[in-house]
Amino acid sequence: MDSSDVAPDLTEILVTQEQIAARTLELAAQIDTDYAGREPLLVGVLNGAVMVMSDLSRALHMHVRMDWMAVSSYGAGTKSSGVVRILKDLTSDVHERDVLIVEDIIDTGLTLSYLIENLKGRGAASVEVAAMFRKPDALAVPLEVKYVGFDIPNQFVVGYGLDFDGRYRNLRDVGILAPHVYS
Ligand code: 5GP
């Protein structure tokens, strides 16, 4: 769906599908260069990272492997607590693999810092992160993120895989959700 399909539900379109597509090509070029001669394992974090994984992986010119994890964080309401439960684990062995975690958005960074430690603990040769969106003002832990699409304000956004109550994942752009939708 396009922003025009849900215009009353958005207060602002933050990033357009064209901007996402252009930035994806830039990130992919950087990843192609950085991983030249290697074959990284892309680990997508379900469900939000489906769109990023799909577009980023196809923009790469090298061979990669792909696998998926689903996690849920124990927390009050919409706040992440950093205590993470693995709902679906990888099917691949990450031992001595170059792992690139593919994420939709980094908010507090708590989920990601858990995942990074978890994958390092399994003996990955390297663990890096590619995230399409990051909210720098919300970061609660120091986090090294090698590939970031866009830094955005500390607001609740939907689209490009990001949902509210299961909806808006198939919105092509990313926008700020209007308060009347969730209040
Ligand atoms: P963190 O552990 O970094 O606080 O939480 C990251 C996860 O929270 C993301 O993978 C995403 O599922 C969810 N999240 C954080 N911010 C937003 C947002 O603005 N919109 C949506 N739809 N999900 C978000």
- Please state the overall shape, judged from the principal axes of the Cα atoms: globular
Arrangement of strands in the largest sheet = 4-3-2-5-6-7
Describe the largest sheet: 6 strands, mixed
User: How far do the termini sit from each other?
Assistant: 23 Å
What is the CA-based Rg, rounded? Answer: 16 Å
Please indicate the percent range of residues in DSSP E strands (runs of 2 or more). Answer: 25-35%
List low-confidence stretches: none
List the ions, cofactors and other small molecules found in this model.
guanosine-5'-monophosphate
Number of beta-strand segments: 9
Helical content, roughly? 10-25%
SSE-based structural type: alpha/beta
Query: Given the structure, what is the number of helices?
Result: 4
The residue-averaged pLDDT reads: 94
Order of helices and strands: EHEHEEEHEEEEH
Summarize it:
Helices cover 24% and strands 31% of the residues. It is an alpha/beta fold. The model has no long low-confidence stretch (mean pLDDT 94).
What does this molecule look like?
With 183 residues, the protein is an alpha/beta fold. The protein has four helices and nine strands. The strands form two sheets. The chain has a six-stranded mixed β-sheet, sandwiched between helices. It has a three-stranded antiparallel β-sheet with strand order 1-9-8. α3 links the parallel β5 and β6. The longest helix has 18 residues. The two termini are 23 Å apart. The model has no long low-confidence stretch (mean pLDDT 94). The structure holds guanosine-5'-monophosphate. Guanosine-5'-monophosphate (5GP) binds next to β5, α3 and β8.
